[in-house]
Amino acid sequence: MTAGGSVRPHYREFAAWLAQQTPEAIERKRAEADLAFRRVGITFAVYGDNAGTERLIPFDMIPRIIPADEWALLQRGLEQRVRALNMFIDDIYHEQHIIRAGVVPAEQIYRNAQYRPEMQGIRVPSDIYAHIAGIDIVRAGAGEFYVLEDNLRVPSGVSYMLEDRKMMMRLYPELFASHKVAPVEHYPDLLLDNLRSVAPVGVMDPTVVVMTPGMYNSAYFEHAFLAQQMGVELVEGKDLFVNNNAVWMRTTRGPRRVDVIYRRLDDDFLDPLAFRADSALGVPGLLSVYRAGRVTLANAIGTGVADDKSIYPYVPAIIKFYLSEEPVLNNVPTYQCRHRNELDYTLANLAQLVVKEVHGAGGYGMLVGPAASQQEIEDFRARLLARPDGYIAQPTLALSNCPTFVENGVAPRHIDLRPFVLSGKTVSMVPGGLTRVALREGSLVVNSSQGGGTKDTWVLEQ
Amino acid sequence: MLSRTADHLFWMARYTERAENTARMLDVNVQTALLPQSEDAARQAWRAMLGISELQQAYDRKHGAVTQRDVIEFMVCDPDNPSSIIACLTAARENARAVRGTLTTEVWEVQNQTYLDLRRRLHGGQLRQDPSQFFEWVKYRSHLSRGVTLGTMLRDEAVNFMRLGTFLERADNTARILDVKFHDDEAAAETRRDFYYWAALLRSVSGFEIYRKVYRDVITPERVAELLMLRADMPRSLLACMDEVVDNLGEVRNDVSSETERLAGQLHAELRFGRIDDILQRGLHDTLTEFLQRIYELGNRVSRDFLVPLAA
Description:
The structure holds two protein chains of two kinds. By secondary structure, chain A is of the alpha+beta class. Chain A contains 13 helices and 21 strands. In chain A, the strands form five sheets. In chain A, strands 1-21-20-17-16 form a five-stranded mixed sheet. In chain A, strands 11-3-2-18-19 form a five-stranded mixed sheet. Chain A starts with 11 loop residues before the first helix and ends with a strand. Chain B has two domains: 1-153, no CATH class; 155-307, no CATH class. The radius of gyration of chain B is 19 Å and the shape is globular. The relative contact order of chain B is 0.12. The model of chain B has no long low-confidence stretch (mean pLDDT 90). The chains are: A alpha+beta, B mainly alpha.
């Protein structure tokens, strides 16, 4: 909807259709969707003996619609951003031009917990580090997009993008006949292509696997789903071993060589010999094979150094430095509390700002000023003063809303968008992404761990 | 195929089959309990039921007297009894979930739906009101699980390992069902000739109509034993199960599995060319006990050769 409350043009057809639906029909469809998601087992979060602990992510049946021209702009901006971020990671693990040029301070790299000295000087195929990136975007006005966060490690949610689409097509085939919705279902094909394109040098017919921490991981459904859709093995650490400077998987016919690992666990757990010794999730010796260039990890080790909230404020400068281009997508204006004057500004305006922990994730450890109590604000003031370099602050944007089903009918709720950008020999993406929606009135937090839901994202074709 | 994946598939199928067999045995006992019989005989039947499944001790630790209600409760909904139907179907679904990417959507959905429905049914009290209806449902879900596997899965190793699990488990169960009836103590000796007794046993393995078709004669224990052991066309017989075990083993054969294949082939051949008279002469109980040991050994060998191999 526009600020004035009228229906934006690309929603008109949908709004007219919606006006003709009875609440009963909608309720029936909603129950059908619930049942189907439950039956297919598209669940997340804690898994245990008790069926109650497997939760469904709320699915909203009103799609988020993006017109073709806005998507074209987004796509251009996303490609540019991810290309620059890959160059940045490559640079900081090699020549470090950007530090020497004084664009990004050295301590922001070396003091970053995600920086991996083991990666220094290591060459990776095609110099690509963030093979799969999930970039969180908000829209504050027509065509006015802001990047909220770069997720370059193991971004989740692509399975919901695909399952939400499948569900919408099943529930409302008539809507797809009346709208030209760009398809997203070929994502697994693109992903497999992309992963094969970054195989170690000289491997002609690479074996790709998806690596999961296991079925108790909250994103396990997605891991299994992607492996199945790509037709590759879903492995756990215990299925792999290192021998003769190569990675192998244990199969019923004996060991089989593995060339590309789409790993869905963090660096810390990859190799107990190199990182956390107490972790049983990884593969002893994996790092040595990786460093020898005999296996590809996607995403590469050490990409986290670039998706941190402490690097985020520098991304526009990073884009200019490597590409000599103006950034297409804006950052949300960000105050780095490590700078004295920006800290002062933040402290003076806490009630208007969103304050985030530099290393926080999942919507935890943040202050949403306008929604916070006086006590919460004072608590955060103390935390900021105690450790200013652990925080950044951002203005609460006039985030765009999307009509959403709530208890009393249809009402606007805040949304964001996570498109998935693939980097290999080329950069590619499907038109769309995961739209997350804050279901509580007024809430700005869309994370599923905070009760957020998802909806199908429609990019309209011209 | 990953060894771990094969392991999950193998056990998913085994647990599904085990739940079905437990339902079959319980159902027959519920049915025969409706016939006029002494309390002793009834108790004896339920005790035998626990004996077949090697659950007598575990039951005694939890319950006092052997009653129909408690035995059913123990064998259907006790999560602490690893052979209970709820434990088996939960384990089957757990294994399916671990390899859901290897299964077709339909196969996974059947496992998942069975698990979800099971809880609803047990909470809804169906087991108390109409146990036979509940057991029918368990059997039906197991049929569905096998059918959807054959109807939708690519004929590859995944199916082979599932079939291995199904038929090793089924061979074990048929042998136990047969053994317990022949192995009753003296007090039950008279009932051995009892038509209802053998009819019930046949029904528990869906063999009643088959018996009539094959023999066109009165029911005798010797023929029942022959049917359940040596007839290749009887789907739950030991020979039919070993046919499948041998076939599927041949499909997944690897560098270390030849001895396992040989042992399976030997067991298969003994059934294939065996005569019931010789078996009875030697002693049915002894033969079945040995069969159970060899099936157990085969299961272990399958695990060792394919499912959890040592690091290379």
